[in-house]
Design a protein that fits this description.
The protein is α+β, with helices and mostly antiparallel strands. It is 14% helix and 28% strand. A hairpin with an 8-residue loop joins strand 3 and strand 4. It comes from Streptomyces lavendofoliae.
Length: 116
């Protein structure tokens, strides 16, 4: 992957301050869930995605660099990972994010980029 894992790629069109909560998330092979929260912090941007019902799903953190498109008309965000990659990602831990550097190393290592 080219670019910074924690920044939206330059090819992704965004409107500043767009509220992405509730947008559907499409992996390369189909839908995977909805955005539960997001951050646009420079150099530390991410999405937290709820991958499904509480028994079968979990919340995962997707660095902004995984985003390939944000479609403001269809409320859809496309990412460059498969559903399996996202399902197997470390579970989002709100107690360790954003302040725990070890959690960031874990996420960055999983997605193949540098920690924040």
């Amino acid at each position: 992957m080219a670019g910074n894992l924690w920044e939206y790629p330059s090819v992704v069109s965004r409107i500043d301050d767009a509220q992405l909560v509730g947008y559907g998330v499409e992996a390369t092979d189909g839908g995977i869930g909805k955005v539960d929260e997001h951050s646009d912090e420079v150099g530390a941007a991410y999405l937290v995605v709820d991958t499904g019902p509480w028994i079968l799903g979990k919340r995962v953190l997707l660095p902004a660099g995984t985003v390939t498109e944000i479609d403001l008309e269809s409320y859809t965000i496309r990412v460059d990972r498969t559903r399996e990659e996202i399902r197997n990602a470390p579970e989002f831990d709100p107690d360790k994010h954003p302040g725990d550097p070890e959690f960031h190393r874990l996420i960055a290592g999983y997605y193949g980029g540098p920690a924040i």
